[in-house]
Write a structure and sequence with these properties.
By secondary structure, the chain is mainly β. It has three domains: 61 residues, SH3 type barrels; 61 residues, Nucleic acid-binding proteins (OB fold (Dihydrolipoamide Acetyltransferase, E2P), Beta Barrel); 58 residues, Nucleic acid-binding proteins (OB fold (Dihydrolipoamide Acetyltransferase, E2P)), CATH 2.40.50. Helix content is 0%, strand content 54%. It is built from no helices and 16 strands. β13 and β14 form a beta hairpin. The termini are far apart.
Amino acid sequence: MATTSDIRKGLCIRYNHDIYKIVEFLHVKPGKGPAFVRTKLKSVTTGKTLDNTFSAGHKIDDVRVETNTFQYLYPEGDLFHFMNTEDFNQISLPKNALDSPELLKEGEIVTIIINAEDGMPLSAEMPAHVILEVTHTEPGVKGNTATNATKPATVETGASVNVPLFINEGDRIKVETEKGTYVERVKE
């Protein structure tokens, strides 16, 4: 058993007869009244998120997990296939177990969280940034660069990312996976 002081991003807990992964949390100590922890939980079975508040010192039932590195192979319907980089075993995960499947390209290395009790994969954590090639975007119009003007661009995985006007087709860009936002252009 853990307490609210052990809460961190990525922790898997048992709550309401399901296993949830903590996506966001905030420790709050108001001037008046007891402290509490505001959390955003994502179900590893259904993919639904819910907001919950735990009072300070509340006991939570954490799930013992193991992490392994896997290479993404290919999609098949709503299933995504991965290969363990150490023993080459393959597993499949449903789309809702992934944080941002639209930014996942073949060959990408991800960390998969596996329940240590029954060996079932719970979720996949993407790297913080991915490098993708822009496959389609409209040319930027000169003159409207007074502010941070952006335009939509389609990347090689099919996802749409807002990029600055100077980005062209064929450019490689770094994308933050958590928010799906443009970070910088990558030079070859």
